[in-house]
Amino acid sequence: AAAEQAAKLDASQKAKVAGLKASAETALEKGDFEAAGARIAELAQAGGADAAAELRKKYEAKAGERETNKRYAAASLAREEVQKIDGAQGIGEKVKALEAVWREAEAARQGQGWGQALSGYDTVIAECKRLSETDAVRQSAKTRMGVAEKAKTDAESAGTAKDAEFLFAEASRTFSQAMAAFEKGEFEVASKAWIDASGKFAAAQKQAAVVQGYRKAKGNFENALATDSALLTKHGGAKWAEVQKLQKVGNASADQPD
Hints:
- By secondary structure, the chain is mainly alpha-helical.
- The protein has 11 helices and no strands.
- The protein has helices spanning 2-30, 33-45, 49-62, 65-82, 91-110, 114-157, 160-163, 165-183, 187-227, 229-235, 237-252.
- The longest helix is centred in the middle third of the chain and has 44 residues, at 114-157.
- The two termini are 38 Å apart.
């Protein structure tokens, strides 16, 4: 099953690379440098580095000062937005790497290496888009974390650590796993785990309510029974003796329903 899934992913990636390559070639033929540059940058990110390198040579040969300056403006705006993103969870390192590409593109533009500068700005634009999308997924994961934190607090307040110990512990483990994935930058994994944790905390709270309801009913019954104990002992006969025997057995068992 794992091999089959890997083969499907490999085929999907090949199809994506082929599609991006064809789109870039078509854009170059039409002189649509903006679209061509974007597809070449995406092609490199998708695993088609060799094809992207060949296309980039043709692209850079056709590029000029005017097209480079247009792309500089777009890359500059995209870069400014990315610099506002919180650098935690590994994003800061990616922004640093992006800055290195930006500086190389700037140096090429100032030296009138239009083609090299253009390719650099395309890479900046594509990476800025990817970082913005990553941050959006991170923000969604943070929302899921908030929901899970509230579910955990509610479960703790409901006494689930005592009355639904196993379920509460399992939910807590899932919550911790989500946090670990989040800090490693695995935001989609973290989001799914927090959804799972929220459900487990809710289930723990439900079980605790059942246990607590049982305990309360048992206590009420025993209190009522104690009130009439003397009367029952005097007049209950063999039936009452049997009830007392069963009660002793019940008291020796766990204070939880099946």
